[in-house]
Design goal:
It is a single chain. The protein is α/β, with parallel strands linked by helices. It is built from eleven helices and 19 strands. A seven-stranded mixed beta sheet has the order 15-14-13-16-17-19-18, with helices on both faces. Strands 1-3-4-5-2 form a five-stranded mixed beta sheet, with helices on one face. Bound molecules: S-adenosyl-L-homocysteine. S-adenosyl-L-homocysteine binds next to α7 and β14.
């Protein structure tokens, strides 16, 4: 088994539950470990500290599976982890939701692995190729413990580029079950959605925004809504289901906008939306917001849910400036007394800094605000370490 030595400071961090060891933090330089090997970390007194998955292709060289007490990493170990994760989600299913996250990576004890469920389809997404040798064990476990028709494998860009990926485990392949021949539907808070689990972003849908969408639904009655970065239109459908008067979507991706139209049709089969009620703009959010502003368009509810502006730590400042710029543009098209919702999914942007950037944006737009509430991940996206808490949201009344 691979042995790893780390500093005393990092030892403390790992003991408190931090799940990553980066390559530059490893003290013994010559390690003959292969992708997916189990690696053990001993503390300075040579006592077992942790065991994890070794990934020589990633900056995160070790992802911790277990701390303090040595255990056998076998199918029983994974089964226990899965059962705890499933238990945590029991109440979600009872709420009329069949699309939710079953395993949220490190935060559910499966570092670098996400499992999303869309009704009877599972989507397993890997952020480290170190899980490849365990796919058979995991597939069997999912098949036996979760009653679904199939499981699709999705790979992060880095994992897909790994030389170790065989055809049988390439992006979009089926790990088990029936081939996809029809659209995949699921429910979120009682609302029907369609999802493209093969080519959609992440695993096809942003399940983490469920609670914020529910808030949007409750705030939408009679409102004109602007949904910026609308993707497949989830916020729009919620807005209409909450009685919104109109929704305008902005997204740069025409495929996402087409999927959004499908979702809307699927939810409101008997309704024909006029252009005044529902419309879409394909283009850059910043450009389009500025056009809307100069043409005098104003909205009761503005939703700003952009992609991560800071993909790396060093982009943090630029990202904060972008959030401020975006909120400034958003606040300018919000009616007096209207509501602005802003979200950030950048891991590298901390919540306090994000909220400050939002307030600054509102201020720079020459507007005031009353904070309504702050929000984060839905319950099926728990976090156990700081990097696991990536989603920040805030609802403000713009005055
Ligand atoms: N709010 C969505 C998720 C947003 S994902 C939901 O609840 O499902 C981010 C979206 O922003 C993607 O659809 C992407 O196409 C879009 N996007 C990225 N950069 C953009 C830009 N500069 N202008 C407009 N849309 C952009």
């Amino acid at each position: 088994m691979v042995r790893i030595k780390i500093s005393k400071t990092l030892e403390q961090k790992i003991r408190r539950g931090y799940p990553w060891i980066f390559h530059y933090q490893i003290k013994n330089k010559k390690i003959e470990g292969e992708l997916g090997d189990l690696a053990v970390v001993y503390d300075s007194k040579n006592i077992f500290l942790a065991i994890g998955l070794y990934d020589p292709e990633s900056d995160i060289r070790l992802r911790v599976l277990q701390i303090s007490k040595p255990v056998e990493i076998d199918s029983i170990f994974f089964e226990n982890r899965l059962l705890s994760a499933l238990q945590l989600r029991n109440s979600i299913v009872a709420d009329g939701t069949t699309g939710y996250r079953v395993i949220n990576g490190e935060n559910d004890g499966f570092p670098g692995l996400v499992l999303d469920r869309y009704d009877s389809t599972l989507v397993l997404k890997l952020y480290t190729a170190a899980w490849i040798p365990y796919l058979d064990v995991l597939s069997t476990l999912f098949k036996n413990k979760i009653s679904v028709k199939r499981c699709v494998l999705r790979l992060s860009r880095k994992v897909a580029a790994s030389k170790t990926i065989s055809r049988e485990h390439s992006e979009g392949t089926l790990l088990f079950g029936k081939k996809i021949t029809e659209p995949i539907y699921f429910k979120e808070n009682g609302i029907d959605f369609q999802v493209d689990v093969i080519s959609g972003q992440k695993t096809g849908f942003y399940l983490d925004q469920r609670d914020n969408r529910q808030k949007v639904r409750l705030l939408s009655e009679g409102k004109s809504v602007l949904n910026v970065f609308s993707y497949t239109g989830a916020f729009s459908v919620y807005a209409f289901s909450g009685g919104a008067r109109s929704v305008l979507e902005i997204d740069s991706n025409p495929i996402a906008l087409a999927a959004s139209r499908k979702n809307l049709k699927g939810c409101f089969i008997n309704r024909n939306f006029s252009m005044e009620e529902f419309n879409q703009i394909t283009g850059d959010a910043f450009d389009m917001l500025s056009k809307l502003e100069s043409s005098g368009q104003r909205y009761d509810l503005v939703i700003l849910d952009p992609p991560a502006f800071a993909k790396r730590k060093k982009q943090k400042m630029t990202a904060l400036n972008s959030y401020t710029k975006l909120v400034r543009a958003g606040a300018r098209v919000t009616k007096k007394g209207g509501i602005l919702f802003g979200a950030s999914c950048s891991v590298h942007v901390q919540s306090d800094n994000f909220y400050k950037a939002v307030f600054l944006g509102i201020d720079l737009a020459g507007r005031g605000y009353e904070e309504i509430c702050r929000s984060g991940h839905a319950q099926d996206h728990p976090y156990t370490f700081s990097e696991g808490e990536y989603l920040k949201g805030i609802f403000c009344k713009i005055v």
